Amino acid sequence: MSPAHRAFHQDLLAHLPAARIHTDPLSTLAYGTDASFYRLRPQIVAKVENEAEVGHILRLAREHRVAVTFRAAGTSLSGQAVSDSVLALLGDGFNRGQVLDGGARIRLSPGMIGAHANAMLAPYGRKIGPDPASINTAKIGGIAANNSSGMCCGTRDNSYHTMLAIRALLLDGAVLDTADAASVAAFRASHAGLLDGLAQLSRELADDEALAERVRRKYRLKNTTGYGINALLDFADPVEMLSHLLIGSEGTLGFISEITFRTIVEHPHKASALVLFDDLARCCRAVSALSAARQRCGVSAVELIDSRSIRAVQNNSGLPDFLYHTVGPGSSCLLIELRAGGAAELAGHRAAIDQLLADYAPQASSGFSGDARQCESYWALRKGLFPAVGAARPVGTTVVIEDVAFPIEHLADGVARLTGLFDKHGYDEALLFGHALDGNLHFVFAPGFDSPAEVARYEALMQDVSDLVAGEYDGSLKAEHGTGRNVAPFVRQEWGDAAWNIMRRIKALFDPEGLLNPGVIITDNARLHLENLKPMPAADPLVDRCTECGFCEPACPSHGLTLSPRQRIVAWRRIRQLQREGGAADELAALRADYRYRAIDTCAATGMCAARCPVGINAGALMKRLQGASSRPGAAMFAARRMGLMTAAARGGLRLAHWFGPERLHAVSQRLRSRRKIIPLIPASLPRAAAPLPQLTGGGEPVVLFVSCVNRVLAEGAGGRSVAGHAVSLLRRAGFHPVYPPGHNGLCCGQPFASANAAAAQGDAERALNRALLRASRDGLHPVYLDNGPCAARVKQAQADGLLDARLNLFDAASFLVERVLPRLRFHRRRDQLALHIPCSASSMGVAGALTQLAERCCERLTVPDIACCGFAGDKGFTVPELNAHSLRRLKPVLPEACRHGVSMSRTCQIGLTEHAGFEYQSIEALLDFCSAPPGGA
């Protein structure tokens, strides 16, 4: 660490807790990565929770002359969220939002995920304008600071055009809130020099008529290359110029601490179609026609997919038949989406667009479909293009996604010329696709940066792309991904000296010493885009395809506590590289010392990262492998073969615990755990011991009821009734005759042993369960009801792996209840407010919709917090309770104040949810039993 950074660090400790300031090798490595192909290792990583802390960091940056980079989600693709100085991360304090004027406006803090803002607006039929592909991960700060757009927003609905007000901190510590007249007046007085400087630049630009017209024309395209100097022409008030220059400035002019957007309508009626052309030029003429009909016919998105891209996804299922046939080199496909406010209006749009397309003689068309699942399969084609390159690339290479924009009249030439450049430079794997309505093309390829020759090949391609796009067609070298470090050396080439000098003077007005995100947007280093290229060394086949995009992070319960899946992989890659190459013994020792707890022990290993990953990587699978085999295989086998004894002992332990008092046990275990982390934490809301399983009598349709060991041990509520009691009640009410498998008290799905990597015990438990279920179901004649979500997922996976008999007709609770039980029930009461937690097991089985349907049937108002994984993860809720607490830290704030009832389909998840919500979460069986019980009935 440099002397200046040591002094900065020492002074910062007076303003931020030490736990939120990181200088250790693992943290600086983990946070030295964003979604781009650059890596800079920060000397200091600091998590900021409020505006005052940002102010302290900016003041100390000025005093010590150290550079600062702010990061929201780190999904940036052009290297604008990495730093070799101070990296300031946005914490939970910046995750706030407020819907205004019945959804017409929304005020957002920069730490809120874009999709969460849209969830807030969904009840009003509105959404924010920007719709980047990363919206489920990207945060508002990054969306605004990069002026992100997307498939539908075009140039009209991006952050620049939908921003109504902004609150920002400048490097000198000043705060400007354009929604506050007093703040604006004070800023005009205190910063007259800055505002006069912007006014002077505006006059100079307007006086250069040729340049002014060129600026207006270039911003009719998508354009994020350089600063948005169109603000100097679009507004007369320098305050408005300033606020709009902050949009797209990538943290180089100031810090955006709050932004208010005008929202746009989210049309409820949609239809999509895939249309194939055998001639690229004709396809692009159709795009021009669709662009002209955009407003009149509800055309919200048109994605162009070139011939290479079509061939790359021809192995996908669910596509129209014509896409599986031979695709020629001139072929191209359009994916078109129409939106409307009503069904009749949508039908009119479909007819009009069908007629329009007929004039361009498409080779084949799927026709417009309004079926949500069908449309989803079409869009899966487009979304599968990035994984097609990412999954197939050689180990050690990375994935680069570039985006450019051509004037739409040159779109066909642009596609052909770019494809020619891929061939010229030997990037045979490159795919090309894009937002055709805006002339915006993305190309994905897999360069290797492990040799000077490969770097030179990449350099030559980038120069040719710049000469083509900016030189020949006066297009945009960065249409929506931001300038970053990647295109900063080419800003002058695209814009020319006059515009470039205006941009340099803008930077000097805001940041004369170049302390805010240096090197980004403005640089004199012509080779900046070739420096600090990220190494991607082989680490393990389970994770080698990872592109470090960060899409996994919002689903990970340990993200922000220890490491995210992306960071686990980054660190393991470095550890393996150091182990192979030798040297740097101190770094290797430091990484390995911290890795066990921060990567392996605090990984929930539920696979939610794989569900969000574009290439399906499960970092948890690697963590389980690194955990190693069970250290006590004999004890695990003893437990597997005596599960009846183990569950009886557990029930006895619970009775003893409740005699002693769970609150006292919680306090005692908390004190003990503060001294030795190996001591499990007993929750204050420890469940009671379950009552014996109910006797099964009577008639009806047979169904095998497998009661998981956790539900044989843990009761629901204070009365001690088991989940099985509610399940039996429901099944009988619906006309079923539940049957226990033989030896049911000693059966286990194998999940506890799988979690402990006790493979022999797991296999033994699965074989015993298979025999019992076959016998009870009469070799698969009767369905099998699996009453706990994680156990159901385990049993279904075992069957898919060939470890359980394929004849078994297995049902998780949500699926069976929706398909077989719900139609036979009569509901006599409903909860007013209900909170639903969808456990990761339900998501992995694809039954989140079924569980939601059941919950909706039982309440007037349903709240579903966006918690992909609660982090309880079997016994980790006891052994690593901080994981569960961290994952559920936002649970209470998002629940309605009047909500006092919760539901899930995982008994262990319910323990943590109850503890952190402050009211009981019950099983879906208990909820349905309550709501469908006749008045006065049981």
UniProtKB/TrEMBL annotation:
Q: Which cofactor does it need?
A: FAD
The similarity comment for this entry is:
Belongs to the FAD-binding oxidoreductase/transferase type 4 family.
Protein EC: 1.1.2.4
According to the record, the segments passing through the membrane are none
Show where the 4Fe-4S ferredoxin-type domain sits.
535-566
- Protein name per the record: D-lactate dehydrogenase (cytochrome)
**Residue stretches making up the FAD-binding PCMH-type domain:** 38-266
Top-rank taxon, per record? Bacteria
Keywords for this entry? Answer: FAD, Flavoprotein, Iron, Iron-sulfur, Metal-binding, Oxidoreductase, Transit peptide
